[in-house]
Design a protein that fits this description.
The structure is a single chain. By secondary structure, the chain is mostly helical. The protein contains 10 helices and no strands. α2 packs antiparallel against α6 and α4 packs antiparallel against α5. The two termini are 26 Å apart.
Length: 333
């Protein structure tokens, strides 16, 4: 038994050594390594840009403070103009977007009307003037698109007028302040131009930081996915090996047992789940059951002299209990 078990273990080890590596493992390992490299690269670049942002921010603060000390009150006096100028620029951007959306809705409406015109022309050109369900469906769809395009154009036109009016109002207010604060504006212009320069520089760095953070999130997600895939493949391989090992060992045990008594002996050796007390109780139950069976059969033979007619008759249940009976008694414990 022990020798046969060692042979099974050797066979399994040999099979493991000869087993080829799952090609999926190599692919996931490459993804894992690539995502690890990406994570390290993006983190390094992200830290560089963050340090650069902090350095530019400190530099901007120092330089602007120097300009404030140099220019004096003109900076505070001209702030309403520069704020109005900033608001007017934002209003201009919104007005331009509304204008583009309005132009787009006009083009969609024009295309939808052309589609309806073509569909109606096709229906009128039919000599038979029969009802064509396909063209009728297309005409209905085109009509629906025209209605939706008209609604979109109306909304975009209203938004365009609103943003244009807001832009004109902001421009008017800015120009009034420009006339009123002309002297302070000219004196403080170097400060606000420098401020705008640093602002644009910081915005560019911030854009790079946002892009790197997005790339880092993607790389970490790819890393986690590759790691989960490797774990799944590993669990799958181990499950297959356990199944193969269990199947091989069961064949070895079955091949060694020929008789009923060997089956009982093997059952005792494999019954690791029973405690020693329960195992002793199981053996005692088997012994007691066999003794009772022997006494009952002996009494029947004493009462029935017919069995004595054949002196060579041997009751198999007394001399050689089958493995099925023994296992049944063991299972009843």
């Amino acid at each position: 038994m022990e020798r046969n078990g060692n042979t099974c273990e050797d066979d399994l080890q040999g099979a493991d050594e000869e087993e080829e590596v799952d090609p999926r493992i190599q692919g996931e390992l490459e993804k894992l390594n690539q995502s690890t490299d990406d994570i390290n690269r993006w983190e390094s670049e992200l830290e560089d840009f963050r340090q650069r942002f902090r350095a530019v921010l400190v530099e901007a603060t120092v330089k602007l403070d120097e300009q404030v000390k140099k220019i004096g009150r003109a900076v505070d006096d001209s702030k309403p103009y520069w704020e109005a100028r900033k608001v007017a620029r934002q209003a201009q951007i919104e007005a331009q977007k509304a204008t583009q959306e309005f132009q787009r809705s006009v083009e969609i409406l024009r295309a939808a009307k052309e589609t309806i015109a073509l569909a109606e022309e096709r229906l009128l050109e039919e000599d038979t003037r029969q009802f064509d369900s396909a063209w009728q469906e297309m005409l209905n769809h085109a009509t629906q698109r025209v209605m939706e395009a008209e609604q979109a154009r109306t909304c975009s036109e209203a938004e365009h007028k609103k943003t244009a009016a807001n832009y004109n109002s902001c421009i008017g207010h800015m120009r009034q302040l420009e006339k009123k604060l002309k002297r302070s504006i000219n004196k403080s212009r170097p400060y606000f131009e420098l401020k705008a320069k640093y602002y644009l520089h910081l915005e560019q760095i911030k854009r790079h930081v946002d892009e790197l953070q997005a790339k880092l999130v993607v790389a970490k997600a790819e890393y986690r996915t590759a790691l989960r895939n490797l774990e799944s493949i590993s669990e799958e391989i181990h499950a297959q090996r356990r199944s193969l090992a269990m199947g091989t060992r069961e064949q070895g045990v079955g091949a060694e047992g020929d008789g009923g008594s060997d089956d009982i002996a093997n059952f005792k050796m494999e019954s690791d789940g029973l405690s020693s007390n329960r195992a002793e109780g199981a053996e005692a139950t088997v012994e007691s059951g066999l003794n009772k069976l022997t006494l009952n059969v002996a009494q029947e033979r004493d009462e029935d002299p017919a069995d004595e007619r054949d002196p060579h008759y041997i009751n198999p249940e007394i001399t050689s209990p089958t493995s099925a009976t023994s296992i049944l008694l063991l299972n009843s414990v």
